[in-house]
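From the pipeline queue, job 12 of 40. The input is one protein chain; the requested action is below.

Action: predict structure.
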Amino acid sequence: MSGLALEILNDGYFYLDAGAIFGVVPKAIWSKTVKDDNNAIRLATNVLYAHGDDISFLVDSGIGRNFSEKFQKIYRIEKVSDVLDHIEKHGDPDAITMIINSHLHFDHIGHNNDFKNAYTYAQAAEFREIRYKNVITRSNYSLSYSDIKRKIPINGSRKIGRYITVIKTGGHTPGHQVILVNSGSTKVMYLGDLVPSTFHLKLPYRTAIDLDPLKTVEMKKVLIRKAIREGYVCIFNHDPETPAALLHGDFENPSFESVEM
């Protein structure tokens, strides 16, 4: 396996109602960390950029930059950094041929169409969700099915090439998947919105947006155990303080050790 460099890039921040992101967790607990008059929480958009001699790809692509004034106002977007800008300055956007999306919500797919040679890899179930939107979930999908020009549907858990394995989890959305990347020297587990932040590591802690909460908890149990046992660096895509960490201890309430990437 040739060398593959792994970086965590930030595509800015946005705010979401704390009740949505903390779900069943009592306000008495989450209010200790939320200091906003509107009970909103500041969320990061951390994505994984992998590049080597023979391949370049992204895991998720952030919130992007093409949104309306109304969208900007609702989500209070702070574009302090931008994935495309970073890659234009320090890499080669044209070399990116794959964007593996955990799911297709607006804050994970914003730059997908900005990389002209990249194909979007997502679960077939997720492409169905974006094609046939319903009244409950449509506000979470900013793009239409036809907006995504280059689509590669995946059916279930599988390996993609030498470096990538996707694990279909469901839970957050019907087609949500967790992405494993093995660079040879580092093993990474990109948890998507199954575990969006270190706060959500406790087994019952889940967002109110999860469509199948029992599935979320079931898959968290499997994957947190795996991360502890096999030494995966876990990436928390919405955590503004700890984008990446190693997990230790009890899978139901693990401790974490921050990792720089």
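Job complete. The domain at 4-258 is CATH 3.60.15.10 (Metallo-beta-lactamase; Chain A).
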